[in-house]
Amino acid sequence: MPRGEKSKYTDKQKRKAEHIEESYEKRGVSEGEAEARAWATVNKQSGGGEKGGSGRKKSETAKRADRKDSARRAVATKHGHSPNRGSASARSRSTSRSTSLTDMTRDELMQRARERDVRGRSKMRKDELIRALS
């Protein structure tokens, strides 16, 4: 039997756990074991119970990359460089830069690392790629 109360879970998480539990029981797993596995699966997929806005953690690397990106955009705005000015190629360059590294997928980060010829990029995780590109 899983421990702890489930009041912090969303309705969607509770439905998902119930569905998973039923699936395990159909396969012959005991009721208690099925329930424990179901909640373990929900926790693995969604990170546990419902969290408020401040409950979501961001790595220091991601925070640093976001701050650096924000500062770069602020300087560009201060100097009158905005996506609405300049040539079409300048606009596409500035809009591609304005996306935060943390908002990019690992594949997009790999592509950018490939363009910059970052050594060891193929073995890097997403947070390591962000650090190397910052």
Broad shape: elongated
Largest sheet: none
Low-confidence stretches: 83-96
Tell me, rounded to a whole number, the average pLDDT. Answer: 79
Q: Can you tag this structure with a few keywords?
A:
mainly alpha; 2 domains; 0% strand; Rho_N_sf; Rho-like_N; Rho termination factor, N-terminal domain
Give an account of the 3D structure:
By secondary structure, the protein is mainly α. The protein is 60% helix and 0% strand. The chain folds into two domains: 11-48, no CATH class; 60-133, no CATH class. It is built from six helices and no strands. It holds the Pfam family Rho_N. This is Rho termination factor, N-terminal domain.
Put the structure in a nutshell.
By secondary structure, the chain is mainly alpha-helical. It contains 6 helices and no strands.
Please describe the topology of this protein:
Elements: H1 11-26, H2 31-46, H3 60-78, H4 88-98, H5 106-115, H6 126-133
Helix pairs in contact: 1-2, 5-6
